[in-house]
Amino acid sequence: EVQLQASGGGLVQTGGSLRLSCAASGLTFDDYAIGWLRQVPGKEREVVSCISRSDNTKYYADSVKGRFTISDDNAKNQVYLQMNNLKPDDTGVYYCNLGQFWGQGTQVTVSS
């Protein structure tokens, strides 16, 4: 059974940092693209960042470029999202996604 477990969210002040982790079990990342999406009430879920395991390409939404860094540890089947210089607009529930599989979401709240 494939499972994604997201963790690392929390409450931080503007300018603070958090690191999200997504641990996968039941499969390996080798040939997949895995991403982080953000859900804000009243808005569609948006892609924040993703990484392709096949060619190691990375994508960042314009709103997070220069502040967020996605990385992975293939040996541990984990993907990380380092979030620096957080802003109130970064507040939301963050989900990791791999194809049809979703993690449970982790809440990030950035206070002004």
The profile of the biggest β sheet is: 7 strands, mixed
Mean pLDDT: 93
**Overall body shape:** globular
- The H-and-E topology, N to C, reads as EEEEEEEEEEE
Radius of gyration: 13 Å
Helix share, percent = under 10%
The parts where pLDDT drops under 50 for at least 5 residues are: none
Strand content: over 45%
How many helical stretches? Answer: 0
Distance between the termini: 40 Å
What's the arrangement of secondary structure elements?
Layout: E1 3-7, E2 10-13, E3 18-25, E4 33-39, E5 46-52, E6 58-60, E7 68-73, E8 78-83, E9 92-98, E10 101-102, E11 106-111
Parallel strand pairs: 2-11
Antiparallel strand pairs: 1-3, 3-8, 4-5, 4-9, 5-6, 7-8, 9-10, 9-11
Structural features, described:
This protein has no helices and 11 strands. The chain is mainly beta. Strands 2, 4, 5, 6, 9, 10 and 11 form a 7-stranded mixed beta sheet that branches. A 4-stranded antiparallel beta sheet has the order 1-3-8-7, with no helix packed on it. Strand 4 (33-39) and strand 5 form a beta hairpin. It has strands spanning 3-7, 10-13, 18-25, 33-39, 46-52, 58-60, 68-73, 78-83, 92-98, 101-102, 106-111.
Provide the descriptors you would attach to this structure in a database record.
112 residues, mainly beta, four-stranded antiparallel β-sheet, 0% helix
Summed up, what is this model?
The chain has strands at residues 3-7, 10-13, 18-25, 33-39, 46-52, 58-60, 68-73, 78-83, 92-98, 101-102, 106-111. It has 112 residues and is mainly β. The termini are far apart.
